[in-house]
Amino acid sequence: MKISLEWLKDYVALPQSADALAEALTKGGTEVVGREGRGEIPDKVVVAQILSSGQHPNADRLSVCQVDDGSGQPRQIVCGAKNYQVGDKVPLALPGAVLGPDFKIKSGKLRGVVSDGMMCSAKELTLAEDAEGLLILSADAPVGKLVKELFPPDTVLELEVTPNRPDLLGYRGVAREVAALTEVEANLSPPPMVAEKAAGEVVKLEDAGCPFYTARIIRGVKVGASPSWLADRLTAVGLRPINNVVDVTNYVLLETGQPLHAFDLAKLEQGIVVRRAREGEMLRALDGSEIKLRVHDLVIADAGKAVALAGVTGGAETGVTTGTSDILLESAWFEPSRVRKSSRELGLSTDSSYRFERRVDPSGVLPASARAAELILQTAGGVADTEVLVVGREARNLATINFSHDRCRALLGLEIGNAEIDAIFSRLGLTKTGDQWSVPGFRPDLTREVDLIEEVIRLAGIERVPSRLRGFPAAASVADLRHDNAEKLRERLRAQGFSEARTSHFVSPDALRRAGETPDDALAVRNPLGADQALLRPALLAGLLEALARNLRHGAERVRLFEVGPVFRTAGKEEATALALLCTGAEAGLFELKGGLQAVLGTVKFRPEAGLALRVTGMGIEGLLRRLPRALGEKFAAKSPIYYAEMDIDGWLEAVSAPVRVRALPKFPAVTRDLSLILPKATRYAAVEKALSGAQAPHLFSVGLKDVFADPSGLTLPVEQRSLTVTLTFRDEARTLTSEEVDRAVETLRDHAKAVLGAVFRA
Amino acid sequence: MREELVALREQALRDIAGAADLTSLELARVAITGRSGGLTRAGEQMRHLSKEERPEIGKLLHEVRTAIASALEARGSVLSAAAEEVELSQIDPTLPGVARTVGSLHPLQHLQRRAVEIFRRMGFALSEGPDIETEWHCFDALNTPPDHPARNEQDTFYLPDGRLLRTHTSSVQIRAMEKEAPPLRIIAPGAAYRRDEVDATHLAQFTQMEGLYVDQGVTLGDLKGTLEFFFRELFGPDTKVRFRPHFFPFTEPSYEIDVRAVALGGGERWLELAGCGMVDPAVFAQINDRRGDQAFDPDKVTGFAFGFGLERLAMILYGVPDIRMFVENDQRFLGQFAS
Per the CB < 8 Å rule, is A483 touching B131? Predict the structure, then answer.
């Protein structure tokens, strides 16, 4: 809501500065989110009337105008705008006028034709942020008058009105708020009211969406341009003046927050019906667009056709034009949800729908109509019927609220006296009866005690509440455990040189397929932002590949990323936590990653699967470690193989680690021997380790791999064989082993390896 | 014999003193104490001496041996120190260190960790809820009217079965109150989703942190104290915190929190960083209905709730110019959060 302070002054005395006002409003809960200063319009900009307009001889887009600037001598101006007619009054910057730091108007020639000044747009005069074409002034603007006298300096504040405060969508409401916040009296005189008359057959309400409708007939109006005070006020807040009747309805909408509509009575067939739209019914809106109505839309109709979309827009055919003589002025109350639905579904948001959606004050319907009638008579003449036609009832539900001062103080943690609280309520227009407070109709948001408590602190100011800080014991939750374990995991991964990534939770079926995964168990979003975000990710791979691609594109040769985050699946656990590691380039390899996972997760188990892949299990983990297919890497122009591990880790995250139990340190030294076994390449290391561990060699404590050797040339070792060197560690808890007994044990192991694995030993 | 020994000592000490490096010293040592060295030979001649001569010459021999040994050792240390000095002088200590790979935490995690630590010091426990939520948990229970714009298909992601992607982590408040009775103090970091077109300040999926405290006698003063403490711990003791009245369906009174701090760039501007308020009794009523008890009787307990977006906070705190950098995962960006 944009508020001109010049206009607002009509209803309330404002604080000294715009800053003070903005501060008061913001502290009161209505944030001032924008401010436009309309500075003084420069001297030497005058009202001029266009006397004639002709084509520029040398430029298709320009025209040459003769204008009257009040000097008695016509003045020739070359102009590029097209939005004027001969006879219009426009601002004219005379030679010498300074419109900006480097913008001084001079006499000169434009494409060979003399131009003795410049006709201005609203933007050039800083009256609007952007405006196409010339600013057309009101017809009664005196030629030769300085334009700065028509538009005195002003400040326009843009208020962010929260949805609970529809009363702030009009100047009178804002004035009331400013009065309450700054402790002054607002000047809100009521308009002259007339008697009400049941509308009988003239207006029929056929749908609950409109419980209250009023119509006022004014005959013999003379439709024309608005007087400048009216046109200027609308211009100041960014509205374009249309004609005096329409401008009055817009003006009263801004003044009171109650939207109004004026119909050309002659174009209405037999009265008004408020009903649902008919199947296939069309309405041409005021802006000329064709609206295809749906049966749940609420419309204003005459005997034959829809003439307005209730609360949203009027129809062009029945609108007020210069030919209009008699008008029907509508002021009504429409169900907010109905207006919201129509407005949203048709993509049509207007000043009117914006207010009806937020619930206008039913008790303001008749006063707004009276105010508009008053202004129409004043600006367009005519004669109003002595009575206003009324159907239905004001949907008013004036709340009365029980209020406890003690509960108020308890919730706020503020010592504030009863009298001060009561004074705050009085400032807000509430009235007290016994222990109950009655709420005025313009505050539909106040229905409960807590709503009133909020008002107390809003006006008293939260700065007065003393801050209190208390500590409490908190037992660790499962979420705490998960968080701590996840943090431990992240730190360990960081120490392994991995950077944490966070990829999108959305993914496309294509991206999944490209990553070699299936979209079959992915959950679909019904209304995604685009096809590339149609699914919730069932795994982290697609997102991390995208991150990889980005890093490769930017020249990274070494990529090490991990991610811990949710994945979503139709089968099994719907939301699981996954961990993924991706690496390529230096220090990337299957065994580096395998070792890294053990360092990070503990003693997980690896089981080989087809391809270069290992199933990872144990420690509450279920996943796969592998080298990604070369073809996949090529899609991302990866120069080196990509190693990738992904696993579900909820079990790991929720595991409580057992406390460490210290093992006694060995008292006697261990003896180690290396043993090289020459084996067929097909013999897996796991089989060797298992065979040696199972040989029952005395005192054998552990078997570890020391080296793998193969000779592709076949010179030192047949190509189909390899040599595995293992380190054997022997130990006895009770004594130092002798060299001889270790030798015997090694002999046992050699014999066993020969027998079980067919191993050969070099002499 | 005596004269020979004295001459041997003088010669040996001269040779030792004259050794210019460790190799010459070693040669000298061999010449003196080696298998056929002078001293060794002198020792062998002891047996040719008479009984009378032996004690005296033996004593002298011992003195000579000791003198030579200590001269060898002394000269050895000097030469070895000199050699080390030469060795060290040949190393360029200004060469760069050998690179060691250090990974990094995601900036949002970096910030989330700090936030969690601060709230934990005040006794908040963590809480979680699903990203895929029911409309009841996300809206109804939070006192959001049935035709509230936020529920619209244009603003909220829905699944075909009518569930939705939570638009805020406030749904975790509801999950927590369903399960547990007061006193309840939780924080809940997590993902939230809104159908915003992605640009420099918007993501369709972003990160929030939610907080809730319900107990007997919780006041607006507790809300103020807790959040002032949080922001001062996060941004430094000079931080100014302003509570600006606002509107949310699920709290009343409601506030937006503006913060001003040197850490946030200049400290002149108020930056809107969080929303908060006292839990609306209508939320408690929904919870009691669902639980079938009066654990959250609005006449007995009160509470406050708050929430803030981690991306916005991180953008301001770390000077990140574009919110999309958080999801691009460029290592050149991520690597800056290695400390």
Answer: no
pLDDT at residue B267 in the model:
63
The answer on pLDDT for A128 being more than 80 is no
pTM, to two decimals: 0.84
Rounded to the nearest angstrom, the gap between the alpha carbon of residue A536 and the centroid of all alpha carbons in its chain is: 21
Size of interface A-B (CB pairs under 8 A): 220
Let me know: does B258 contact B139? Beta carbons within 8 Å: no
Q: Are A72 and A66 in contact (CB under 8 A)?
A: no
**pLDDT at residue A250 in the model:** 96
Give B165's contacts in chain A (Cβ within 8 Å).
525, 536
Helix-strand-coil split of chain A, %, nearest 5: 30, 30, 45
Mutant choice from B98, B100, B102, B106 vs A, greatest count of A C-beta within 10 A:
B106
Instruction: Express each pLDDT in A698-756 by its tens digit.
Output: 999 999 999 999 999 999 999 999 999 999 999 999 999 999 999 999 999 999 999 99
* Contact at CB, A550 and B246, closer than 8 angstroms: no
Report whether pLDDT(A528) > 80: yes
Alpha carbons A503 and A523: distance in angstroms, whole number: 17
Closest CB to A551: pick one of B193, B204, B331. B331
With a cut of 70, say whether residue A134 has pLDDT above it: yes
Residue A193: band (very low, low, confident or very high) from pLDDT cuts 50, 70, 90: confident
Question: Is A217 strand, coil or helix?
Answer: strand
Q: For residues A48 and A325, give the distance between their C-alpha atoms in angstroms, rounded to a whole number.
A: 30
Phi-psi region of A624 (alpha: psi -120 to 50; beta: other; left: phi over 0): beta
Please calculate the CA angle B263-B268-B269 and round it to the nearest 5 degrees.
Answer: 90
E strands, A681-741, where? 700-709, 721-730
Distance CA A224, CA A379 (A): 9
> Do B105 and A494 count as a contact with CB atoms less than 8 A apart?
yes
Q: For A183-195, give the DSSP string.
A: T--B--PPPPP-E
Q: Would you state the pLDDT for residue A7?
A: 93
A129 pLDDT above the threshold of 70: no
pLDDT in tens, A419-436: 999 999 999 999 998 889
pLDDT, tens only, A150-170 = 877 888 899 999 989 999 999
- Residue pair A670/A729 in contact (Cβ under 8 Å)? The answer is yes
Measured distance CA(A292)–CA(B82) in Å, rounded:
100
Rounded CA gap, A323 and A222, in Å? 8
Contact present, B160 and B149 (Cβ < 8 Å): no
CB atoms within 10 A of CB A57: 10
Distance of alpha carbon B164 from alpha carbon A80, whole angstroms: 53
Interface test with A, best of B151, B171, B220 (most A CBs within 10 A): B220
CB neighbours (10 Å) of residue B80?
13
Smallest Cα–Cα separation from A205: which of A119, A301, A282? A301
| Spatial separation of the C-alpha atoms in residues A248 and A251, rounded to whole Å | 5
The nearest CA of chain B is from the CA of A545 a distance in Å of: 11
pLDDT along chain B (339 residues), means of 10: 87 91 91 86 84 87 92 93 91 88 93 97 96 97 88 91 97 97 96 95 96 97 97 93 95 95 78 96 97 96 97 93 96 91
Contact between A376 and A192 (Cβ < 8 Å): no
Residues of chain A contacting B246 with CB distance shorter than 8 Å: 29, 31, 162
Structural domains in chain A plus CATH codes: 2-39+155-182 (3.30.56.10), 45-151 (2.40.50.140), 195-392 (3.50.40.10), 400-463 (3.30.56.10), 478-653 (3.30.930.10), 671-761 (3.30.70.380)
Q: In whole angstroms, what is the distance from residue A409 CA to residue A50 CA?
A: 67
DSSP A513: H
